[in-house]
Specification:
Radius of gyration: 47 Å
Distance between the termini: 55 Å
Oligomer: single chain
Number of strands: 5
Strand content: 5-15%
Helix content: 55-70%
Length: 432
């Protein structure tokens, strides 16, 4: 794994202004070599200038040692090299100084100005030195050689280090830009991963809720009717054996129907395609997909529909509930999910009446309208003596599940007590 930009900035292990220890060692080595060069070049300079040789050597050593601060003050290094150019010393100092200056993050006008000064200084010094050599007879060439040598030497000592420094600086800035972009992409990927995890967690919670709602709708109603019939069976077992036998048969039928619906749902959840995988070992996303497939198949083929409302009301009436069903408008077919949701709303509302208002008269209203279907289940207040002896438990999820189902289809769901002391559940679902 590559180091990020932040790691690159904070990983400074060298002394003073050096980022790395090896950079400090390299610069010190260059400074030593430059000091030796300038010290040796200071000997002829001292003789020509008429000063003690020791002074020329010390001057050269001090001037060459300036190269040690090239990373911190490249401008100062170049200025020193320009200053000692007339003394014909500091060639390594000038070349390395120009390279460092061009590679540094400085304005181009400063780099161009100092490079031009160095070029002019080298040009003048080379021109004068070459002309002096020709006058003394050291060189026996034509007059053309003096400007040619001056231009060639000045360009040779100035252009290559400047161009190389510009290239290295541009490459370094490009690498920094790419490193920052990689850091930015890494942060974005982390954010995307966190958001994906949040979405996955939300999807898992949604699937848990939906599966729980499906299980509740399939089982709760029939089990509630079984408990009611079992309570009635217990009450009439000795007084009316024939009615007890009838209630026992109804309990058996309800139990078989509940087991059949539960087995169908779990069978679809287990299959998940052609392979049979235990539900407990399936990922929740796969469970959700299987549940969606189950809901779709049940809605299309085996799911409850509005045509079974009369049978549903009849089951409640068989359990002892006084229930009145009325249908308004012309009956017609709707989308499978609309019919299933309408059926589940009525089913859950009747289950709640069995739980909380056993014996109360109940009214079921179903209205077929132009662009919607409306349903309402309302029960009167139960009498004191009609309180259920079955003690049916309530998890408080029925109304929530109904509202979620209706809202998912863009409908409106309202529930609450009536002024007379009963309870009303109303829902309106768009027809398409």
């Amino acid at each position: 794994m590559t180091a990020t930009g932040e790691d690159h900035v904070t990983a400074r292990g060298g002394p003073w202004w050096w980022a790395r220890r090896r950079s400090a060692v390299f610069d010190v080595s260059l400074a030593v070599v430059s000091a030796l060069e300038c010290g040796l070049e200071g000997i002829p300079f001292a003789r020509d200038a008429g000063v003690p040789v020791a002074a020329g050597v010390v001057f050269g050593v001090l001037a060459g040692a300036v190269l040690v601060v090239r990373r911190r003050w490249p401008i100062a290094v170049v200025l020193v090299s320009i200053a000692i150019t007339p003394a014909q010393m500091g060639f390594l100092l000038g070349i390395v100084g120009l390279y460092t200056l061009a590679a540094a993050e400085l304005p181009r006008r400063i780099i161009g100005s100092l490079a031009g000064m160095s070029l002019v200084g080298t040009l003048i010094v080379t021109f004068v030195k070459t002309q002096q050599d020709m006058v003394r007879g050291d060189l026996d060439l034509g007059d053309w050689f003096v400007p040619f040598a001056a231009v060639t030497m000045s360009l040779g000592f100035t252009a290559p280090p400047v161009l190389l420094g510009l290239y290295v600086g541009a490459r370094r800035r490009l690498m920094e830009s790419l490193r920052e972009r990689a850091d930015s992409l890494e942060r974005e990927l982390q954010l995307l991963a966190e958001r994906a995890e949040e979405r996955a967690e939300w999807a898992r919670n949604e699937e848990r809720t939906r599966i729980a709602r499906e299980m509740h709708d399939v089982v709760a109603h029939r089990v509630s009717l079984m408990v009611v019939h079992a309570a009635a069976l217990q009450a009439v077992a000795r007084k009316d054996p024939e009615k007890a036998v009838k209630n026992a048969a109804l309990v058996g039928d309800m139990g078989r129907q509940a087991l059949t619906e539960l087995r169908e749902m779990l069978g679809v959840l287990r299959s998940g395609g052609e392979r049979r995988v235990p539900v407990a070992s399936m990922p929740l996303a796969a469970v959700g997909a299987a549940a969606a497939a189950a809901a779709s198949r049940v809605a299309d083929d085996e799911g409850p529909s509005l045509a079974e409302i009369e049978e549903l009301v009849g089951q409640s009436a068989a359990a002892g509930m006084v229930v009145d069903l009325s249908v308004e408008g012309d009956a017609r077919s709707y989308a499978p999910e609309v019919e299933q949701t309408a059926y589940r709303v009525v089913q859950e509302a009747l289950t709640n009446v069995h739980k909380h208002a056993a014996g109360a008269k109940t009214y079921v209203r179903l209205a077929h309208r132009v662009s919607e279907i409306a349903m309402q289940v309302e029960n009167e207040p139960p009498g004191e003596e009609a309180a259920s002896s079955a003690r049916l438990p309530s998890g408080g999820n029925g109304l929530v599940g109904m509202k979620e189902r209706v809202s998912a289809l863009g409908g409106v769901f309202v529930s609450g007590p009536t002024d007379a002391g009963g309870f009303r559940v109303s829902a309106v679902i768009p027809a398409s």
